[in-house]
Amino acid sequence: MFVQVTNALLEGFWESLKVFGLTLLFSIPLGLVICFGSMSKWAPLDFLSKSKDSFFEKFKPIQWLCKGLVWVVRGTPLMLQLIVIFYGPGLMFDLPLLPRFTATIVAFSLNYACYFSEIYRGGIESIATGQYEAGQVLGMTKTQIFFKVVLLQVVKRIMAPMSNEIITLVKDTSLARIISVYEIIWAGESFIKKGLIWPLFYTGAFYLIFNGLLTILFARLEKKLSYFRG
Amino acid sequence: MAVLEVKNIRKSFGKTNVLKGVSFSLEKGQVLAIIGSSGSGKTTLLRCLNFLETPDVGEIWVDGKLLRSGSEKLSEQQVRENRLHFGLVFQNFNLFPQYNVLKNVMLAPQLLKKGTAKELEERAKQLLDQVGLSEKLDSYPYQLSGGQQQRVAIARALALSPQVLCFDEPTSALDPELTGEVLRVIRGLKNADSTMTVVTHEMEFARSVADVVMYMADGVIEEIGTPEQVFGNPQSEKTKAFLRGAHEKF
């Protein structure tokens, strides 16, 4: 019985891990895009402004868009976002529904990208301007400064908050079942019908072990980056 | 002919006029020391030379080439090319913490493709030897004292062979016992015929190393001349008061 349950839960956990892995794959780079967007100073109508602090000078569409997106995504429950992304297009615009799994990945990626973008932004803004200026006076391009000077320092600084979010993501995957995506909690719960409650409790062990492994991995990464300070 | 010629630089931040028309020129191999109290515009002047600030008005010429003309918009590419005529050593060193000493010096020349990896490494080692740090090639900035970090920063700036090397209060962030080693390196560069502009509070150093001393007050050059003139026989009342104050401090 135990083996049978374990196998069923492993199958469910594999689905959870797919959500986890794909979400990370998409949200880590997407977060960077949103982060750059919310730091964008592009003010296309600036040339119309006649005085300091005029509307035209403050009109930064990319920044507004990205900050608005982050506000909405962080301000509403992920569970609700899953429902809206899955049912919304059909109900509002009569579009065909996305496959459940795809909708899950879209909702999770967008949600986590917004959180990541704020972590990135904090990291980037914490780098002293002197680092940028040192790169500038040495004739580096903006891209070179970002990738060769700033990036690794940012990565080091955001390790702790990123590991927090990533561990939360492992557990959040269980929300996917609100739109009927099979995952480990569902797998555990399905045994209740057969009169078994312990498989549901047992699912906790899978999360624990996996998050334990992640914790070890993050500790290793942090150690790897401990060769410098700053 | 003058290596550096600065004509009527003006710069204001909002309503504050930081530079109100600064002009001077510097011959090849000369060392200019800029002294003055904080807020007098010394640092802003250096930052204008290094294209970290855009002056509102004024011209910057190096070797007879006009690099900056007022607030005229330059392309990023142009700014990068032009600023390479200058080097800047910061008050807080601003070394790159994730790279060792050798890589700190080599990084920019490598990115700018100034030579093969081997040539650049040779050159970097030679420069680090010049500043007395050939033992520290593999150290990371946090493992070095402030004085050592600043010497790495000098080698890093020299690696791009700027025509004019600028120092922004190079010893102000250092413990008093560490200023000597940095000043010795700068003195050594003078002997190697580098053209330099040094913003400093070290009056003794300015007096002994500089060919030209410039005293700035309220965004203008209050007095400029040889160290003997400015320190020995200042003409302006403001200069006299400043020097008295600076003297009393020590």
Tell me about this structure.
The complex is a heterodimer of chains A (230) and B (250). Chain A has 230 residues and is mainly alpha-helical. Chain A has helices at residues 2-38, 55-58, 61-75, 78-93, 100-125, 129-137, 142-172, 184-189, 198-224. Chain A has a single domain (2-227), classed as Orthogonal Bundle (MetI-like fold), CATH 1.10.3720. Helix content of chain A is 74%, strand content 0%. In chain A, helix 5 crosses helix 7. Chain B has 250 residues and is an alpha/beta fold. Chain B has helices spanning 42-49, 76-83, 101-111, 117-130, 146-158, 176-191, 203-209, 227-232, 237-249, and strands spanning 2-13, 16-27, 31-35, 57-62, 65-69, 86-89, 164-168, 195-199, 212-217, 220-225. In chain B, helix 5 runs parallel beside helix 6 (176-191). The chains are: A mainly alpha (230), B alpha/beta (250). The interface between A and B is medium-sized, with 23 and 29 residues.
What gap, in angstroms, lies between the N and C termini of chain A? 54 Å
* Architecture per CATH nomenclature, i.e. the level-2 architecture of chain A: Orthogonal Bundle
How far apart are the first and last residues' alpha carbons of chain B, in Å? 38 Å
The radius of gyration computed from the alpha-carbon positions of chain B, rounded to a whole number of angstroms, is: 18 Å
Indicate the low-confidence ranges of chain A by residue numbers: none
CATH domain fold name of chain B: Rossmann fold
Shape of chain B: globular
The low-pLDDT segments of chain B are: none
**Total number of helices of chain B:** 9
Total tally of structural domains of chain A: 1
**Overall average residue pLDDT of chain A:** 92
